[in-house]
Model the fold of this input.
Amino acid sequence: MAMEKTFNAADAENRLYEAWEKAGCFKAGAHAKPEASAYCIMIPPPNVTGVLHMGHAFNNTLQDILIRWKRMQGFDTLWQPGTDHAGIATQMVVERELAKEGKKRTDFTRPAFLEKVWEWKEKSGGTIVEQLKRLGASCDFSRTAFTMAGAQGDTRVGHENSPNFHDAVIKVFVEMYEKGYIYRGKRLVNWDPHFETAISDLEVENIEVAGHMWHFKYPLANGATYTYVEKDADGNVILEEERDYISIATTRPETMLGDGAVAVHPSDERYAPIVGKLCEIPVGPKEHRRLIPIITDEYPDPDFGSGAVKITGAHDFNDYQVAKRGGIPMYRLMDTRGRMRADGAPYAEDAELAMAVAKGEKTLTEAEADAVNLVPDELRGLDRFEARKLVVEQITGEGLAVMVTETRTDAEGNDTEALVPYVENKPIMQPFGDRSKVVIEPMLTDQWFVDAEKVVGPALDAVRNGKVKIIPESGEKTYYHWLENIEPWCISRQLWWGHQIPVWYIPGEEDWYPICAATEEEAVEKARLQSAEGTEFRIVADQQEAVEILAEQRKLLDTRDEGTIQSFEGPMQVPMFREPDVLDTWFSSGLWPIGTLGWPDETPEMARYFPTSTLVTGQDILFFWVARMMMMQLAVVDQIPFDTVYLHGLVRDAKGKKMSKSTGNVIDPLEIIGEYGADALRFTNAAMGSLGGVLKLDMKRIEGYRNFVTKIWQACSYGDNVIDAFSAERGAEPPAASLPLNRWIIGEVAKLREDVDAAFEAFRFNDAASAMYAFFWGTFCDRYLEFTKPVFQTGDAAAQEETRKVFAWAVDQSLILMHPVMPFVTEELWNVTAGRGYGTGDAAKMLVHADWPAYSAADLVDPEAEREMNWVISVIDSTRSARAQMNVPAGAKVQMLVTEIDDFGRAAWARNEALIKRLARIEDLQEADSLPKGSVVIAVPGASFGMPLADLIDVDAEKARLEKTLGKLAKELGGLRGRLNNPKFVASAPEEVVAEAKENLAAREEEEAKLTEALARLAEIA
Done:
């Protein structure tokens, strides 16, 4: 039965994938050779709420290439799939669904809400897994893991191979807590006022927005003055005046209320006279204006603004570091919703307390400072941005804004000068929650932290000593920089969906005493062991209920009869409540390698596949995920989690711009698969996969590789329908061959095998794709396939049979070598060209389980055949090039003269005359002593040919055409060079615009070189 004319990807892809899964082709250990080494890849778990985007498509294509390659080589492979529970994202999705019913999360108890989340997860949480299958991802989906697997409320069914991830997470937390690696403390974090939780840096988008920089005066205390002197770079005085203030600039005036100091650089001579003095925050009730000290610190830049910086440690990350260094109190101004605080004592009372601290009369602990509310009474409860407006109005109204002269034009057209408040309108980078889309507030809050300094050492050593290799090498430098300057890692989130922190609290002497345990029962037992004999504990819902119970118990105890042990029936029960926060998803995903393999149980998978082999992930999560997996696995099981980390960049559009919905340049991989097929997208991803390269996704490139898929199909169709090459049995070894043409292609296949293996070993996926494309389209189709046509037109039966066998073998080997990149079309062709058949359900007959070849070029390259075919190709290519340059009509057959030729060339011509004449469009070849005027010379190794052109082209007309084209091209080149030689253009134009101009210049210069060469040839023959 003849092959179909084209490959129907839409029909084949789903059919083939179902056949692979049904036959168990992707299960751990499938197609493994006896005594095979293990090779394991852990998928970077996508969010359970996610859908396939171009980053996923690129990342998973590379992983699939590696795992299919290693599986075909006979390794014991496992590609471990799974999803992350995605705390904020999932909770947001479920709350959005509830909102459609007019409900909100707080309408439910925590357990009832979590039931809703699990219901959603079962119904809609597997979308991205199904989409990965459309891409062709050959994961062992029977082992699909989930970072909340085993947690209370888990309703999943049919996941017998999915380990209890929750128990692993809780066990690690308890162990790290007991070792002193985890603690609760107060630090500055990114706070999302919409979700009312801390978030990681990765969940913050810094976006440039139109902003303002206000300049205000902080009056010196007690009317003090000083001489302010401004000097130029040469030390000349350019301004000298008496001042009774120090000026600062701020983009967030509302945070002035929480200032703890004003800082200047130690070398800034302008402010030396007032360092150590107090200044007044110019906002709030006048009778209670706070004073703060003027200090020195290395942080302020003397050349930026006034050189003086207000220090608000509770609301700015840089200020926080200054405050920690200088012992400056940090006053929190906002509540969890981003509103100005309305709790605590009246403003006058807390302002007086803060004044005493500023004067050195009193000190506060961090917790005591956090309790102080320095928001004036009239601003309490206001939204932070509404408070900002009122603060600016108050300061400006009191004349404490820095004033500048501004020229204005009145109604009559006259210019007048006026003093106006100094407010710069300027773009500022503002942090937004990537999901909430609200402005993130740096906030001093109580959180749980990993003391990263205690666990970072082994993770650094593993890379330094070469146990773990990071590719490209630039990733190692980033890794070292981050880990050598590591800060405590905030691992708590104020959410309901997630691993609830396994800590319970009982009343302590001054505060709540924490009890860390894996279960509630263990926590109660630990509490009993640390309490007076006979003490019993009562688990309550939360801290509020515990406080109410304690208050009631105190009332009862205060009214008991003298000598009475208990004042109500039954023993006194101490309230005990659990920490409400959950763990950051990065904490649980940090255990991904061991958690998915069944740790802490001693599973066969853990013994076989850990440590894992290669991690393929984006460079943007090198710190958030890769480094944390390194730290946690080494801290927990004292082993590295993987031996190689391959980092790639962000997939961008064709011009190098970041894809975003706002700019409208987002490309949907599912739409690409629908239109072009998964193989075209996968090949494009491989072609982009250069080490450290910018990942530019061009739709024209995808279209081109879809054409490549078609080319492969057409070549096989020729072999099937035209020369009947696939009728005979064939094996892995190349057939015996006598024709130089066939001996040559066997050697070229061997070279391709070595090139592909070398590229995959070095993670140079683009080199592998280039080698495949160049071989199959260029060497096989444009050369070998065309070269076989004269054999089947004029050759004898033996030559034809040999060529059929070699053609079929070369196709088989090509399909094997291209399968990891293009699995669908290659698997389909593997079946239809030999009837090997995925329909049988026998994985051993499928291409996915074909043995990867191990032959070498040294064994299969025939030097004599290679020399002969290269000579033939040189004659054909040189003739074609000359024809094209001279604009010889494509259909015209030309006479060729040979003025000299050695014995090798003469023999090569004789054996290959038919194909040379056919492909170079040569009528015949005649020997001549010299070439007639108007001939173009074609030189090849050992021979010199000539092609008379007098009767084929008008030389003068062709020269005129080329000169005119070169003239136009010169103008284009001048314009492009002018732009690129303009420093202003290079400095100010977008990066992608400059890159495009450079690419255009290179293309035009290449075109100019070709035209100039053609003109020179014409000059020679004129």
